[in-house]
Structures are given as C-alpha cells and as structure tokens.
C-alpha cells in the first residue's frame, strides 16, 4: 500500500520501495513496525552489528510516523508539574530530561546521516484556551524554572500577536527547546541510516501471526517466515491482534489534519510570526503550524473509529477558521487522518511482556522524538538485559478498564472531556 496522499507524501524525498519478504530468514531480532520506534530500534541494534529484520505491513513511515504534524516537542501529555505531584520532583526532572534527550537524539541522527527533513529549532507555544489555563501554564513555567533551571517564558494576552495572530487565546507559554521537521522524510532517512549499518527492512509484509517455539519467536507473513531470538513490537496506534496484552493496553485514537493552499509569505508570517509549533490547552486540543512552503496546517477532531469522512474534515476546517477567521476563504489542498496510540495513564510505555516480547507504545501525540529514544532503549535492553532502568522504563503498563466495552467507555470519556473543555 502506498503512502496516503498528504503534504508530506507529496513533498517526500526520492525513495525506492523495499522488497516484501518472500522467503524464510533468521535474525537475532525481528521488529514489527516500520515507524520511528521500529526503525530506531533497528538503527541502534545495527550500530552494534546485531542482525535485525524490520517487517512493515505497508511502507516505511506509513502510519503516524509519516502523517504527524512534524512537531518535535519536549515533555509529555501530562505537564511536568502534574508529574511532580504524582511521583515527586526528582522523577519529574528525570522524565523531562529524557524527553529532551529524545530531541537531541533525533538531531544527532539527522546531522550524522545528512537526513534532509527541515529540522529546525523553532520552539513551541502552548496557547491558553481560558484564563485559568494561562495560570496553569504559569505554574508549570515557575516550577520548572525554580526546580530545574529549565527556561520557558510566558506571553500575556496583550502580547499574543507576537506568537499567534488569533483572538481565540489568552496568552501562553513558549518552550524554546522544541523543534519541527518533515516527519515522513525523517522516517525515510532513519530507514536509510539503519540499512546503511546492516539492518534489513521488508515492506508490504504484514505479520499474520507470531508464535514462540522454545526460545525462538517465529513470525509468519503471507509469503515468508522469520525466526529470531528477540521480538520487538513497535506498532503504537496500529497495534492489533498480534499481542493481546498490548492490544488491551493501547487506545487507538484518530486525529485529522487539514492544510491550506500556499499563502502569501507576509500573511503566513503574520499569523505565526516566530514559526512556532503551536497547540492549545483544551483536552481535545487544536495543534497547528506554518509549513516550510507557507501553508497553515491544523489538526484536531478526536475520533475513535479512525474512519475519515466529509463531516470530520469539515469540522477540522471549522476549527481552523475558529483560530484564524481570515482563512475562511482559503482553499484546503490537503487533508488526511491517522491513528495515535494513547494509554490509560496518558504516558508512553516501554518494557517486556511475560513471553519476552519487547515493546514501546502510547506516545499520546508526543511521539515524534520520544519514539526514537524508545527505540534506542529497546536496543539497549536487548543487548544489556541486566542494565538498570530509568524512570520511564519503570512505569507499569496497565490494561484499559472495561476493554470488552471499550467503544462505550470511550464514547462516555469523549463526552466528559468535551464537557470539561466547555466549562473549565
């Protein structure tokens, strides 16, 4: 299956299709999923000359890795202040540092291999949807500055147009440590880098089943088979029946994007003057940015079945107009959707199942860089199983309650969070 049509697919670097698996092969490690998690795992294993095979059912970067908004952000879905209240200041500091390490790792890989993906240290802006949200952002800003010497800065509503020309918000917070990139070109470049070190990647190769025969994992595909000592599942929002424990622990959530026609440079620069990556503070947030060719990209509209429709994209276009009313008559030239992977506690998770399967998932919309770090950590765990674990690796994975009635539970949760967005 080809990449779905998107701005990123239409502006992707030249790349060749990889072959599908049509034989039986053996490896030290087999990796299911050709997104950032799986590709990073392969890259870091191949650096140490460990024989690894990546099995991707469509194309490298076909899922969220090639369809996201290209926002390489620090932090997690919960704020650092929230994390500190839950686990303490030391844990919050370690988790914050790990998220920054993820960004530095992306930068290191891009520079080392000359990946052309428009990587830019533009920073991000959290736009306060309500005055109370501004106060919460300020609390987070003050906490990080006092306890970690981590510098962010606040923008009051009277100065909002220095960051975004919209009347919808009440100021916000700038984090200058974040980046932007072309997400699909990063995925393609990461795949090339992994292959240059010896990793083998098969596309158009869905895994039909995985069984464990003694100490060996055996994966069956429509045209071949892989046997390996280690199995890695890195499918995130596209995790399906290969592993029941993982399927029951991740919530696939659809998110949808629209992109305008190219705007006059002056207009694009006025709407988002500093080219920040922007997200607001609603539970069902809007996220938006300028693209390198002077378009405005905006994503939103949570959906739990992942099915695209005219109604959904009209809703996202209405969100765009709510933020920027002057774009009412701008043509929408691209629109697409995809699945994110959420967990019950809104944290990413990494670990090993009882049968030995390695996994990382649940990035909750913050996976552009942390997934690359997760791949490195999985590789380390394969190579050094007795190594001490960081705080991120110690968070236990929990199954979603009422999994059998998940559709009902998610529908109720949606209504609840929309209520909160409206009144709080």
Count of domains: 1
Shape descriptor: globular
Flag low-confidence runs: 415-420
Main sheet? 8 strands, mixed
Structural category: alpha/beta
User: What amount of the residues lies in strands?
Assistant: 15-25%
Mean model confidence by pLDDT: 93
How are the SSEs placed, and which strands pair?
Elements lengths: L6 H4 L13 E9 L3 H12 L4 E4 L8 H4 L3 E2 L7 H8 L1 H25 L10 E4 L3 H18 L4 E3 L16 E4 L3 E2 L2 H14 L3 E3 L6 E5 L2 E6 L2 E10 L10 H4 L3 E10 L4 H7 L5 E4 L6 E4 L5 E8 L6 H14 L8 E11 L6 E4 L5 E4 L5 H17 L22 H18 L1
Parallel strand pairs: 1-2, 1-11, 2-8, 4-13, 11-18
Antiparallel strand pairs: 3-7, 4-6, 5-6, 9-10, 10-11, 12-15, 12-16, 13-14, 14-15, 17-18
Give a structural overview.
By secondary structure, the protein is an alpha/beta fold. The chain has twelve helices and 18 strands. The strands form three sheets. Strands 1, 2, 8, 9, 10, 11, 17 and 18 form an eight-stranded mixed β-sheet that branches. An eight-stranded mixed β-sheet has the order 5-6-4-13-14-15-12-16. Strand 1, helix 2 (36-47) and strand 2 (52-55) form a beta-alpha-beta unit. Helix content is 34%, strand content 23%. The protein has helices spanning 7-10, 36-47, 64-67, 80-87, 89-113, 131-148, 183-196, 244-247, 265-271, 310-323, 367-383, 406-423, and strands spanning 24-32, 52-55, 71-72, 124-127, 153-155, 172-175, 179-180, 200-202, 209-213, 216-221, 224-233, 251-260, 277-280, 287-290, 296-303, 332-342, 349-352, 358-361. The model is unreliable at 415-420 (pLDDT under 50).
Briefly characterize the structure:
InterPro entries: FAD-dep_OxRdtase (IPR006076), FAD/NAD-bd_sf (IPR036188). The chain is α/β, with parallel strands linked by helices. The chain is built from 12 helices and 18 strands.
């Amino acid at each position: 299956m080809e990449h779905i049509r998107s701005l990123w697919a239409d502006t992707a670097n030249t790349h060749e299709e990889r072959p599908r698996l049509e034989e039986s092969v053996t490896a030290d490690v087999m990796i299911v999923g050709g997104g950032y998690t799986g590709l990073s795992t392969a890259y870091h294993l191949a650096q140490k000359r460990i024989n690894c095979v990546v099995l991707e059912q469509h194309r490298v970067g076909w899922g969220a890795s090639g369809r996201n908004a290209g926002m390489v952000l620090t932090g997690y879905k919960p704020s650092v202040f929230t994390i500190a209240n839950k686990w303490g200041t030391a844990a919050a500091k370690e988790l914050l540092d790990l998220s920054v390490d993820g960004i530095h790792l992306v930068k290191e890989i891009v520079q080392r291999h000359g990946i052309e993906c428009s990587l830019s240290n533009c920073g991000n802006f959290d736009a306060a949807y309500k005055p109370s949200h501004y106060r919460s952002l300020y609390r987070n800003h003050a906490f990080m500055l006092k306890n970690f010497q981590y510098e962010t800065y606040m923008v009051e509503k009277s100065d909002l147009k220095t960051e975004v020309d919209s009347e919808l918000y009440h100021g916000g917070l700038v984090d200058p440590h974040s980046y932007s990139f072309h997400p699909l070109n990063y995925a393609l470049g990461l795949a090339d880098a992994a292959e240059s070190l010896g990793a083998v990647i098969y596309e158009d190769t869905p895994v039909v089943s995985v069984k464990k025969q003694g100490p060996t994992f055996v994966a069956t595909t429509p045209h071949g088979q892989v046997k390996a000592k280690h199995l890695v599942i890195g499918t995130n929002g596209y995790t399906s029946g290969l592993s029941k424990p993982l399927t029951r622990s991740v919530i696939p959530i659809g998110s949808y994007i629209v992109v305008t026609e190219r705007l006059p440079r002056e207009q694009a620069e006025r709407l988002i003057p500093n080219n920040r990556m922007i997200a607001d503070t609603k539970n069902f947030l809007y996220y938006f940015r300028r693209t390198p060719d002077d378009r405005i990209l905006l994503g939103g509209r949570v959906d739990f079945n992942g099915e695209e429709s005219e109604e959904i994209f009209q809703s996202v276009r209405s969100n765009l107009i709510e933020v920027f009313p002057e774009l009412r008559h701008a043509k929408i030239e691209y629109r697409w959707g995809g699945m994110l992977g959420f967990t019950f506690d809104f944290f990413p998770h990494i670990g090993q199942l009882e049968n030995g399967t390695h996994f990382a998932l649940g990035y909750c919309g913050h996976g552009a860089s942390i997934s690359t770090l997760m791949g490195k950590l999985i590789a380390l765990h394969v190579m050094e199983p007795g190594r001490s674990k960081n705080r991120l690796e110690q968070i236990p994975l929990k199954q979603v309650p009422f999994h059998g009635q998940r559709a009902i539970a998610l529908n109720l949760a949606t209504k609840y969070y929309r209520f909160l967005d409206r009144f709080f």
